[in-house]
Amino acid sequence: MTQTAPARGYHHGDLPNALKSAALEVIDEKGLGGFSLREVARRAGVSHAAPAHHFGDTAGLLTVLAVDALGHMRRVMAEAAEAETDPVERLAAVGRAYVRVSREHPGHCQVVFRTDLVDTDDPALVAAGLATFEVVRGVVADLAAEMNPDLDIDTATRLCWSTMQGVVEIEQKMKLHAHHSGTGLSDTDDTISAFTRMLVEGLRAR
Amino acid sequence: MTQTAPARGYHHGDLPNALKSAALEVIDEKGLGGFSLREVARRAGVSHAAPAHHFGDTAGLLTVLAVDALGHMRRVMAEAAEAETDPVERLAAVGRAYVRVSREHPGHCQVVFRTDLVDTDDPALVAAGLATFEVVRGVVADLAAEMNPDLDIDTATRLCWSTMQGVVEIEQKMKLHAHHSGTGLSDTDDTISAFTRMLVEGLRAR
DNA sequence: GTTGGATCTTTACGTTGTCAACTTGACATC
DNA sequence: GATGTCAAGTTGACAACGTAAAGATCCAAC
Fold first, then answer.
1. Does domain B57-201 fall into CATH 1.10.357.10?
2. Cβ of B200 and A202 within 8 Å?
3. What is the pLDDT of residues B19-55, one digit of tens each?
4. Exposure winner among A93, A162, B55, B134, fewest CB in 10 A?
5. How far is A47 from chain B (nearest CA, A)?
């Protein structure tokens, strides 16, 4: 809640951003299930109908949050990629970053894939998706340049992103392990590393 | 709506199943966003509070539907596996089946991963998840037996399921293609085939 | 035949999203 | 400085929702 404006009187100054912050607070605390426009308005200290004035409806606000989530993902993944030099380690690092962000802000990241809550045709959302795709694509392209010039980079990129998102869904939302031990953090990192190895080397014996 | 009972008078005969059918109808027509206990009750021709009597609350009913969805998935995947002999083609067929079911009944399949709507600790749900896992595991195990005895089968199985679910999320919920042509059905089948090839052969050149 | 329990209804309460009508504040123009 | 105009918020209302509690109805066993 970094209030950049006086926020006194009838006019708030920067209500849209205040509402976005409040919305993220709610989602972080109570998850997407506990999200409501009225609760957001309450936290921002405005009337219950104020959010609709700026974002139209629930989908309007959540779509903006989805764009932000994709942007955050993109930045974190780009940073993770820059920190590694070996192309395989880079892919693994990007995967770890993706899954880590998805776990640190579950609700916020889930919004991206909640097509029932979001305007999937929103240009900003589509652009944010493509921009994030480009980061993964860059990593895959570097990998291909060094290890396999014949690789279909677009397809491989989609495979990698699908796998990363699948990990978020399967490993974190389903209870497949009889003994789910500890925080599961290092477990997930190990999973990503193992998956990356298999993706690069293949399931077939060499 | 196969009504197995007279459904006359005060007692319905088999309300729980009727409610499940009605719920699937609603979800199929209006998606998970349009789902409500009251609408389900309306379709089943009972009072709005009747569902709660049998399923406790919303999560109770949806959890049962999630179990059914996993069971349906398991059966369809098992059939697809039996129809192929080559282990690689088998894996591809299972993947296609998974994605096809997920698209044919989007709402129903999404319930499985909606941890906010479902009781993830429900024993039947956990069991259904494990049973479905076993089907994929069997296919991966056969693949390993023929092509790579050293393969970590559990990890490879999780990789395959993660990828399949990731395809459902990424390819169907995000608009990454500048030109999204036609029905996208054959596109998705091609995607699965390409992904399977890459999974088996690896991203690295041989 | 009556008693008990399961099944379903009725009533009620609080919460939600969204719409329409209203008020307030700021700013530009005359 | 008065006036017009428009965006920004408020207020009030409405229908729909989930769920809890209490009442009605049927079946079955004794």
1. yes
2. yes
3. 999 999 999 999 999 999 999 999 999 999 999 999 9
4. B134
5. 26
Instruction: Answer for the pair A66, A118: CB distance below 8 angstroms, yes or no.
Output: yes
Domain boundaries, given as residue ranges, for chain A: 1-56, 57-201
The string of pLDDT tens digits covering residues A104-153 is: 999 999 999 999 999 999 999 999 999 999 999 999 999 999 999 999 99
**Is B158's Cβ below 8 Å from some Cβ in A?**
yes
Q: Please report, to the nearest 10 degrees, the dihedral formed by the alpha carbons of residues B159, B164, B170, B176 taken in order.
A: 100
CATH number for region B1-56: 1.10.10
Burial class (CB within 10 angstroms; exposed 0-12, middle 13-18, buried 19+) of A115:
middle
> Distance between CA atoms of B188 and B177, rounded to whole angstroms?
12
Question: How many inter-chain contacts (A to B, CB under 8 Å) are there?
Answer: 159
CA gap B168, B157 in Å, rounded: 17
The pLDDT > 90 percentage for chain A reads: 83
Q: Quick count: other Cβ atoms within 10 Å of Cβ A148?
A: 18
Which nucleotide is closest, CA of A16 to its C1'? D8
